Backbone:
């Protein structure tokens, strides 16, 4: 029986292969989108799910409230771990570790007579003890989790790092070897573990014994202080079954109050939270360890896009199938006359739908690698499409095929199997159906398609408009033709910076130089508490700090509103403040702040000038209170303003070449790296640019599928009205009048879709713009452009079939009357 269904279905599809191909393309697009987004969602939602008892693992994170601002920190105070292990009950394990900020240089001793092999910019280095390996599951290839990190300077490597540092040696031979870390630590390899193959945020590859931090040279300055929280100092706990996180949080808060020294000048409030392991990969407030964070609302939005595209494909199938029903009416009538039951016909039509869906699925499997490659900038590097390695994909595809078969095929199967044989054989299957419930359902489905398509168009235009606004808004500083380089943080020769600066001053393509900490806008922030006293009141604020020489505000074109510029000094002796901070201090005019004193770094320092506000970070964030001071011993970034390009466009290339040559003369062992300031600004909006790319892709697909659906409805209508059109032509109607008559009804559907889509899009766009402190407006022309685009595309689609119907010979259409 099933063989008969399959053979019949294949014959029918081959006979109507044009319609079949249109259906396959529409479904393949929806299934491809669903598969790609499933891969992305599956990748992110499965982070660290492999950990044993992961639902009982939490990270202890810190929160502070000060000056009506809430601050989050993923770390804890240095002595917290030991106190938690000693004083708090209900914990199965306490796991502290400390990340090593910045790149690490690894030196591997060479054989006799050979130089050491140097690996620069090594990441994923962490100080940990044996408890770490009880929390995170590793397979040990050499060494023991109980003893490998027992003593200072003992080190464990992942298999990939062992092969990198000691090529040609098996893991057992690596034990006992030494490596040098930043020329300060001589580490002995005591163990090798297999790299974690599952999705995990714990991407560390070099583990140094936690007890190494107790050594004189590496011991952090705040090691015994309860008043200083460091984001590098991480603390994880595993709760006993039945213990609630709120119980542990309460105990940790009490513990902190017990040991924290009383400071009357500290007006902040602090509290701790237990962050679930499942939240680490998604929570931007606390961050993770190198892997890009995922955003749950974005993932849910992508899943919604996949559902919409899949729904569009199904609607398209329904419209095309029912539109083509007239071609199969007699076949159905004969089948029923010969004894086929309605159930058998339903199974037959569902079989055809399943075969179409299966072909579309195979096509989508072929398209998926191409889509992943096209969106490689948005797709994580370690996300791969591999049916063998991920059998869950096959299960997903099978379930998707069944779902699409039911969504797409059930309604057409019910309609087609419901034809009455007597009416069919008399060519009256469609009599009186132009205003039936089925007709309105098809029109409703078409309206739904265009609602989705128009929302996509409007969203795409708005996102592009916001990105353009963000990149071109005056942020209060100059960003073009400026690059900066970072000198070596560990360089102990103070004169090197001055020597390098002098060499740069000799380069004619450079217009100006400034030694500073960070450019005006940067993801790296430095803030601290500053107090202002005017005799009557005391204002304590958390203020961002930037350091630069006297050229800093000149190079970046920061506007000086009052007072004078700071002078280049070895230590901070005077301050510039921004407008926002001046207003917080109670000054209505910038000049009123000049000459006042702030308590800064335990010293009273004068305010010598006020600069206009500028955005210290992306437009997502509001302007914060800020001070600018000169402190040459702490400034290691060199900002370089270049002269404008010449006609041949070689000025900047020549300048960079000369800067690199000067760098190698001063820092021969360090790699030369530079960053253009305006490119860094553009990176703030990478997520929005990725979203714009995805929306353009989704919009194009939605329009394409919607037009296929519209084409199906046009075919259905013109088929029904063939004889009416013939009569009208005989009575003198022109081709233009007939095209207008047919198109009018469909344009009404497009306009109706616009009326529904506009308010929905307006609400969604305003909600999205709330993520930006500085944002563009939802302009009226966005809706006008979207509606115009959709009407033009609809007219082009209608023209394909309406012109054909209007120019047909009326004799042929009336021959059967």
Residues:
């Amino acid at each position: 029986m099933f063989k008969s269904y399959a053979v019949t279905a294949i014959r029918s599809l081959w006979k109507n292969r044009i319609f079949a191909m249109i259906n396959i393309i529409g479904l393949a697009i929806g299934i491809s989108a669903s598969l790609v987004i499933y891969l992305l969602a599956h990748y992110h939602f499965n982070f660290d799910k492999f950990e044993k008892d992961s639902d009982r693992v939490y990270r202890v994170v810190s929160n502070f409230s000060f000056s009506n601002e809430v601050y989050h920190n993923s770390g804890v105070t240095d002595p917290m771990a030991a106190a938690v292990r000693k004083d708090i009950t209900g914990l199965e394990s306490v796991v502290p570790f400390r990340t090593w900020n910045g790149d690490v240089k690894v030196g591997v001793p060479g054989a006799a007579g050979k130089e050491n092999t140097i690996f620069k910019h090594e990441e994923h280095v962490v100080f940990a003890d044996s408890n770490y390996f009880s929390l995170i599951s590793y397979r040990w290839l050499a060494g023991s989790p109980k003893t490998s990190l027992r003593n200072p300077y003992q080190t464990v490597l992942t298999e990939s790092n062992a092969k990198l540092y000691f090529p040609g040696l098996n893991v057992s031979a690596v034990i006992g070897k030494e490596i040098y870390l930043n020329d300060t630590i001589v580490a002995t390899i005591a163990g090798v573990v297999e790299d974690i193959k599952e999705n995990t945020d714990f991407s560390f590859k070099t583990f140094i014994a936690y007890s190494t931090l107790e050594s004189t040279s590496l011991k952090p300055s705040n090691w015994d202080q309860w008043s200083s929280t460091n984001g590098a100092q991480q603390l994880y706990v595993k709760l006993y079954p039945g213990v609630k996180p709120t119980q542990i949080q309460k105990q940790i808060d009490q513990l902190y109050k017990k040991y924290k020294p009383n400071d009357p000048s500290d007006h902040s409030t602090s509290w701790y939270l237990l962050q679930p392991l499942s939240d680490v990969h998604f929570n931007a407030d606390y961050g993770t360890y190198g892997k890009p964070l995922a955003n749950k609302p974005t993932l849910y939005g992508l899943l919604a896009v996949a559902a919409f595209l899949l729904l569009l494909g199904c609607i398209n199938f329904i419209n095309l199938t029912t539109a083509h029903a007239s071609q199969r009416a007699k076949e159905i009538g004969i089948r029923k006359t010969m004894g086929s039951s309605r159930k058998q016909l339903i199974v037959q039509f569902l079989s055809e739908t399943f075969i179409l869906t299966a072909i579309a699925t195979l096509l989508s499997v072929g398209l998926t690698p191409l889509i992943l490659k096209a969106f490689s900038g948005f797709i994580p590097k370690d996300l791969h499409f591999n049916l063998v390695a991920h059998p869950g994909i096959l299960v997903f595809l099978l379930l998707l095929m069944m779902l699409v078969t039911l969504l797409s095929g059930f309604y057409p199967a019910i309609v087609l199997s419901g034809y009455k044989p007597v009416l069919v054989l008399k060519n009256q299957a469609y009599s009186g159906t132009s205003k039936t419930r089925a007709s309105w359902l098809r029109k409703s489905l078409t309206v739904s398609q265009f609602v989705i398509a128009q929302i996509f168009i409007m969203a795409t235009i708005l996102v592009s408009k916001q990105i353009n606004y963000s990149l071109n808004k005056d942020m209060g500083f100059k960003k073009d033709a400026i690059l900066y380089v970072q000198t070596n943080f560990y360089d102990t020769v103070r004169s090197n910076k001055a020597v390098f600066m002098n060499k740069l001053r000799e380069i004619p393509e450079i217009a100006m130089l400034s030694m500073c900490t960070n450019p005006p806008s940067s993801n790296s922030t430095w803030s601290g508490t500053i107090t202002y006293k005017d005799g009557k009141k005391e204002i304590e604020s958390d203020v961002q700090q930037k350091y630069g020489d006297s050229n800093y505000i000149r190079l970046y074109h920061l506007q000086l509103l009052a007072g004078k510029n700071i002078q280049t000094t070895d230590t901070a002796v005077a301050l510039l403040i921004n407008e926002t901070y001046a207003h917080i201090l109670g000054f209505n005019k910038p000049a009123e702040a000049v000459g006042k004193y702030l308590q800064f770094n335990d010293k009273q320092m004068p305010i010598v000038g006020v600069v206009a506000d500028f955005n210290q970070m992306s437009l997502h964030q509001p302007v914060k209170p800020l001070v600018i001071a000169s402190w040459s011993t702490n400034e290691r970034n060199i900002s370089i303003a270049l002269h404008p390009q010449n006609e041949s466009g070689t000025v900047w290339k020549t300048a960079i070449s000369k800067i690199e040559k000067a760098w190698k003369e001063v820092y021969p062992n360090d790699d030369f790296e530079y960053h253009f300031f305006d490119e860094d600004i553009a990176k703030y909006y990478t997520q929005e640019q990725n979203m714009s790319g995805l929306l353009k892709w989704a919009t194009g697909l939605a329009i394409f599928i919607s037009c296929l659906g519209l084409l199906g409805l046009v075919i259905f209508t013109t088929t029904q009205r063939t004889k009416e059109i013939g009569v009208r032509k005989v009575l003198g109607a022109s081709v233009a009048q007939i095209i207008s008559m047919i198109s009018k009804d469909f344009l009404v559907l497009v306009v109706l879709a616009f009326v529904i889509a506009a308010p929905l899009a307006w609400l969604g766009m305003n909600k999205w713009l709330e993520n930006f402190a500085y944002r563009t407006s939802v302009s009226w022309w966005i809706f006008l452009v979207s509606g115009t685009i959709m009407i033009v595309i609809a007219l082009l689609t209608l023209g394909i079939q309406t012109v054909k119907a209007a120019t047909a010979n009326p004799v042929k259409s009336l021959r059967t009357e």
